[in-house]
Design goal:
The complex is a heterodimer. By secondary structure, chain A is mainly beta. Chain A contains two helices and 16 strands. In chain A, the strands form three sheets. In chain A, strands 1, 2, 3, 4, 5, 6, 7, 8 and 9 form a nine-stranded mixed sheet that branches. Chain A starts with a helix and ends with a strand. The chains are: A mainly beta, B mainly beta. Chains A and B meet through helix 1, helix 2, strand 12 and strand 13 of A and helix 1, strand 33, strand 36 and strand 50 of B.
């Protein structure tokens, strides 16, 4: 009778979860990593993971059995081999929030890339918007001296008046700025020190095409 | 399905008796509530303003003690807490006291935190808390109660706190009764015994910021919010790029969808009305962005985000959730009275020259990239909280918040900031990678707390903390070129660290200059002087201690227990007790100057190594006193005299007590090195 009940119980429990390969940024499988699943509820902060995988072997493969539902997934590999603890310099972690829906009786396939912490934090910025690049440069006066507390602004296409399409934060004392622009866009970049409601038509500008994720060395002279 | 229902019934059958034993409690208490019987506190409890929690006689409360990464701004501690902003009545009786303990006595829970609330407490016993009772601007009477085996027994803080204490037993805590910033305390029959560090102390030394540095931005702030302006009555989405100027009144939630830009012009006042549908005292109006925001004021015409309801949490937040990956800009803005001033997930934000004040939390970020420069973050419950983010913080003022900054699993570049007068702690960092340099961290209750993290901490000034200046546990760090001065307890406490302590100045601290337990690394080139306890106190050390100065400390210059490594080329002079006090050392003592200490030059118990090439002279008691049976090789030292009789007189060994070993001191040096 007990065996019958157990059999019925096992039959009534469906098996599902996620599976895939943990890879580094060069798509090599990563051994020694764990996958952590957090129930994706209304909480904004992830506390302790609800489920943890076995450690990955040389093929980087993992399987994590989960009850059906929505999950936030992370993966980490600690050089120390520990499952928990602070990220050290050479530890690897997945980037951003990976949300997975696990349906009853099905395994969802998800390969996960792990990076060092800094790359991971930067990577998520691009995973959703791979079309964005950063233009770095310096704003100077006509004598070549850096201008702090100014900002760079970009106009798309041939537009060069009114409110810009993109602006940077304020420059530091070295006149340095960072401007986020769509890759492939052609823009006119000018510098300003006035507030947005007092902008004049731009006269001095640099025209560039953003071809890569990072464009550096752009020098703009402020009038 | 039928079978599953059967299992459920089976589970319920077994669960009922268990759940009948204790009621679970956690979350906000929104109406008057009575606790009795057995209560299991599984999550933070908050008694909101205007509400009373009454605990009846004989109630036994167990608190789950796990530390969490929770971030809700209305709570105070990372540990499980019972926070009272309304009223707490504890009606224990002599034979039926109210008991509150941790679920596991090895772990801490936060304690009862009376934050601007009232408490009337009789016959209460509290154990295992970080602070059994912590009063901030509270009005409390505590009678016939005990606080036993906590980190702090009672902490009473702020001149607005009025506390009557009667017939209390405060014992076996690390710290007994602690008061900061001139609270009004009347006490009778308060018995404080057997505290590990100190029974009681009070301290008040807030530094006025103008005495240190002027704020980065001075502004003409719009003071009056007048009638009129653009009024946004209902929940709505901006469907196209939008410019706000003048005055905007928000009476619900404004959404900025992906692809839409909200530009706020200089001088704009954005006013949020107070809407509280769940009656938890926290406003729900705000701006929710998935597009882009440019709030770009000027120093002369800042943008003001405010509420006419002048209280923390009167409106929700400016929330950026997966905002477009262009930079969101906040410049020359004033953000006040929010639940979370600016709150971001998966966004890129640039914050410069803003003021965040009187918010429950000024800034909260998760999975974001932040560049935060030249801001003033003051008078918030919590200044900044980050998780899983890359953050550069530079030239900011972070002052008079409950907690200044909290970082979890983030990468942090933190430089040239001023972190001062924060009521509970200045900086808390956990599981992060750090580069912290050239900051002033002064007059916080606790200066810096570093847990499970790695990186560099250099060229900072950490001073006048009400408790310890710097506390590190289980970290891998280089601590170099800092100045730890005049902290009320220890300058640094280091527990389980791999890393080095190099070229720091550690002086005038109220307890030990440095306390270290379990270190693998070097301690070199530091100047540790004029501390009221030991200069440095070490336990379980693996590494060399070289080229330091341990001068004029009130207790021992250097006290070490279980040390593997050499003690070389240090100057250990003028200390109030022994110059060096060692228990169980495996290594060499060489090249040191040990002079003019008021106890022994070197006091030694169990050594595997030798003492050679040192100058040991002018110490008030013995040059070298040993406390173990082993013989000691102490040849080739300068003992301050060429008279063998004088040298022999300065050594305490077998010839003073036949139960001790002998010291070999011949040949000896005839002059100082």
């Amino acid at each position: 009778m007990i065996f019958l009940l157990l059999g019925l119980l096992l039959n009534s429990v469906s098996v599902q979860g996620i599976e895939g390969i943990i890879m580094d940024k060069d798509h090599n499988p990563v051994a020694g990593a764990y996958v952590y699943a957090f129930r994706a509820d209304e909480k904004e902060v992830l506390r302790s993971p609800d489920f943890i995988s076995q450690v990955t072997k040389i093929d980087g493969k993992y399987t994590l059995y989960l009850p059906a539902g929505d999950y936030i997934i992370k993966s980490r590999k600690k050089i120390s081999g520990e499952r928990f603890g602070p990220l050290e310099t050479y530890d690897l972690t997945s980037a951003g929030k990976i949300i997975i829906k696990v349906e009853e009786g099905k395994f969802t396939s998800k390969n996960i890339t792990v990076y060092d912490l800094k790359t991971a934090a930067e990577a998520f910025s691009y995973e959703d918007r791979t079309d964005m690049g950063i233009v770095k440069g310096r704003i100077t006066d006509k004598k070549g001296q850096p201008v702090g507390n100014s900002y760079a602004m970009a106009y798309a296409g041939s537009k060069s008046t009114g409110l810009p399409d993109y602006i940077s934060g304020l420059t530091d004392k070295n006149g340095e700025f960072e401007l986020y622009l769509p890759i492939g866009s052609r823009v006119r970049i000018a510098a300003a020190i006035d507030s947005l409601d007092k902008l004049n038509d731009i006269e001095e500008y640099v025209e560039i095409k953003v071809e890569n994720k990072l464009v550096s060395g752009v020098e703009i002279i402020i009038k | 399905m039928i079978f599953r229902s059967g299992i459920l019934l089976l589970l319920i059958f077994f669960m009922v008796p268990v759940s009948a034993l204790a009621s679970e409690a956690g979350g906000k208490i929104l109406k008057d509530t009575i606790w009795s019987g057995n209560i299991n506190v599984t999550d933070d409890v908050l008694v909101i303003e205007g509400v009373t929690l009454t605990i009846t006689e004989g109630t036994e409360i167990t608190v789950v003690s796990a530390e969490s990464g929770k971030t809700d701004p209305e709570y105070i501690s990372p540990l499980t807490e019972i926070t009272v902003r309304g009223s707490l009545i504890v009606n224990g009786k002599e034979k039926h006291p109210v008991l509150i303990n941790s679920e596991n006595s090895k772990d801490r829970w936060a304690g009862i935190l009376i934050d601007g609330g009232k408490a009337n407490i009789s016959y209460l016993s509290i154990k295992d808390a970080e602070e059994a009772i912590y009063c901030i601007a509270c009005n409390a009477e505590v009678r016939n109660s005990s606080m036993v085996s906590n980190t702090h027994g009672l902490v009473i803080q702020g001149k607005d706190s009025q506390v009557k204490l009667d017939s209390l037993q405060i014992k076996d805590n690390k710290y007994g009764l602690v008061s900061f910033d001139n609270p009004v305390i009347s006490q009778k029959k308060v018995k404080i015994t057997n505290s590990e560090v100190i029974d009681s102390y009070g301290y008040s030394d807030h530094i006025i910021q103008k005495e240190i540095r002027t704020p980065p931005v001075l502004r003409k702030v719009p003071q009056t919010v007048t009638e009129g302006g653009l009024v946004m009555e209902n929940e709505m989405s901006l469907l196209t790029d939008t410019i706000w100027s003048g005055k905007v009144v928000i009476k619900n939630v404004v959404r900025v969808p992906q692809g839409v830009k909200l530009i706020i012009m200089p001088g704009t006042i954005v006013e949020f009305t107070f809407r509280d549908t769940n009656r938890d005292g926290i406003g729900e109006n705000g701006i929710l962005l998935q597009g882009t925001i440019w709030a770009k004021g000027t120093p002369e015409r800042p943008i003001l985000f405010t509420s006419q309801t002048r209280k923390k949490g009167a409106w929700d937040s400016i929330s950026l959730i997966g905002s477009d990956r262009v930079q969101n800009i906040f410049e020359n803005c004033i953000v006040e009275y929010a639940y979370r001033g600016v709150h971001s997930h998966f966004s890129v934000i640039n914050l410069q020259q803003n003021i965040f004040r009187n918010n429950l939390r000024a800034l909260q970020f998760q999975d974001s990239r932040m560049d935060i420069r030249d801001n003033v973050i003051e008078n918030n419950n919590s200044g900044l909280q980050f998780r899983d983010s890359v953050v550069r913080l530079q030239d900011n003022y972070i002052e008079r918040n409950y907690t200044g900054l909290s970082f979890l699993m983030s990468e942090l570049i933190f430089s040239n900031n001023y972190v001062a007068n924060n009521i509970i702690e200045g900086i808390r960092i956990r599981e992060s990678k750090i580069d912290i340099y050239k900051n002033k961290i002064v007059s916080n209750r606790k200066g810096v707390l570093l847990f499970d993290s790695g990186g560099i901490f250099s060229r900072n000034f950490i001073g006048n903390s009400y408790e310890n200046g710097f506390y590190s546990k289980n970290s891998n760090a280089k601590i170099e070129n800092n100045n730890f001065a005049n902290n009320r307890l220890s300058g640094l406490i280091i527990v389980e660290m791999t890393g080095d302590l190099r070229d720091n100045k550690i002086s005038g601290n109220g307890h030990n200059g440095v306390s270290v337990s379990r270190l693998k690394g070097k301690i070199t080139e530091n100047t540790i002087s004029h501390n009221k306890g030991n200069g440095i106190s070490l336990k379980n050390i693996e590494g060399v201690i070289a080229d330091n100065k341990f001068l004029n400390n009130e207790q021992n210059g250097l006290a070490a227990e279980k040390m593997t490594g050499d003690l070389m080329n240090n100057n250990i002079s003028g200390n109030g007790r022994n110059g060096v006090s060692l228990v169980s050392i495996k290594g060499k003592i060489s090249g040191n100057v040990v002079s003019d200490n008021k106890g022994n030059g070197i006091s030694l118990k169990a050594m595997d190594g030798k003492i050679t090439g040192n100058s040991i002279f002018g110490n008030k008691e013995y040059s070298l006193g040993i406390k173990s049976k082993s013989d000691i090789d102490a040849r080739y030292n300068w003992w301050g005299s060429t008279s063998e009789k004088e040298i022999k007189k300065g050594i305490f060994d077998y010839y003073n007590d036949p139960l001790l070993g002998k010291v070999s001191y011949k040949p000896y040096l005839e002059r100082s090195l």
